[in-house]
């Protein structure tokens, strides 16, 4: 995968469909026969779905079964991260290095942008949660054991294993710069040996949330407009799941952003 516009489009289209995402999730567990996959996701358009995944270089046919390619495995890897036990302070934590930018993938929400998979070493493990106060907008997710940092339109997710994903990145140069900034910020705290003090949550207003809504004013949420929905969301008079269009593949990054912003309410 070189990240050419044509390849980006192929992967973006392949992963924008829920049936194809289910097939990918099945293949993460183990190789499967076509019959097994059809038994789970249905036979309707199965050949078409498999063709889309194979054309995107995510899946390959091998010895009568289907398997993820190396590229497909990397693509799915960050979904299977495990939380580490949280540490009490930064003692014993070593300064980080950006060891590699492993892959440039299409950003599902915007095919002109990229999703980057990179690696920081040594892995931060249980020290990750302590770093939350270092960033103006960051939250530690207990569920996935990852620190999610919002920097403008970019969402950075650092896993305790050292893997890092960045979404809505314009170029490899921007990815490198963002990762270097991240490394410097974390290393300053590690070198000083200071455990950051928890800080006040940052406030978020409805206009910021509105920016990430579909802006179609479809009223499926029972509100007059997306703007009205944003106001009610901030006022806790409605819930995010009422906006069902956000579950479409092309809005997945927007959904991630809104969920992060709602943590600050
Ligand atoms: S359902 Fe979502 S897209 Fe439709 S009006 Fe409500 S907030 Fe906007």
Care to describe what's here?
This protein is 36% helix and 20% strand. With 265 residues, the protein is of the alpha+beta class. Helix 1 runs antiparallel to helix 4. It is globular, with a radius of gyration of 20 Å. The model has no long low-confidence stretch (mean pLDDT 82). The structure holds iron/sulfur cluster (SF4). The site of iron/sulfur cluster has 14 residues, from helix 8.
The distinct bound ligands, ions and cofactors come out as:
iron/sulfur cluster
The SSE string, one letter per element, is HHHHEEHEEEEEEHHHH
Distance between the termini: 39 Å
Strand content: 15-25%
Q: Using the alpha-carbon principal axes, give the shape.
A: globular
Instruction: Let me know the largest β-sheet.
Output: 6 strands, antiparallel
Biggest sheet, spatial arrangement of strands: 3-4-8-7-6-5
CATH class of the largest domain reads Alpha Beta
Question: From the helix content, strand content and strand pairing, which structural class follows?
Answer: alpha+beta
Please tell me how large the radius of gyration is: 20 Å
Number of helices: 9
CATH architecture of the largest domain: 2-Layer Sandwich
Helical percentage: 25-40%
């Amino acid at each position: 995968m070189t990240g050419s516009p044509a390849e980006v489009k192929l992967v973006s289209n392949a992963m924008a469909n829920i049936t194809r995402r289910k097939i990918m999730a099945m293949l993460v567990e183990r190789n499967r026969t076509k019959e097994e996959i059809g038994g789970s996701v249905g036979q309707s358009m199965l050949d078409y779905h498999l063709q889309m995944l194979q054309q995107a270089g995510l899946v390959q046919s091998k010895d009568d079964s289907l398997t993820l390619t190396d590229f497909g495995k990397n693509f799915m890897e960050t979904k299977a991260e495990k939380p580490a036990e949280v540490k009490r302070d930064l003692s014993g934590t070593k300064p980080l290095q950006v060891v590699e930018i492993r892959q440039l993938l299409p950003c599902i929400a915007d095919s002109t942008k990229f999703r980057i998979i990179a690696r920081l070493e040594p892995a931060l493990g249980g020290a990750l949660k302590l770093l939350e106060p270092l960033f103006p907008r960051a939250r530690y997710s207990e569920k996935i054991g990852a620190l999610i940092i919002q920097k403008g339109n970019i969402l950075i997710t650092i896993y305790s294993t050292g893997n890092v994903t960045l979404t809505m990145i314009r170029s490899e140069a921007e990815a490198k710069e963002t990762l270097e900034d991240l490394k410097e910020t974390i290393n300053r705290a590690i070198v000083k040996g200071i455990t950051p003090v928890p800080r006040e949550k940052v406030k978020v207003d409805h206009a910021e949330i509105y920016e990430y809504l579909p802006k179609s004013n479809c009223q499926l949420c029972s509100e007059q407009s997306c703007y009205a929905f944003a106001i009610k969301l901030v006022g806790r008079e409605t819930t995010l799941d009422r906006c069902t269009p956000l579950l479409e593949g092309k809005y997945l990054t927007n959904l991630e952003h809104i969920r992060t912003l709602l943590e600050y309410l």
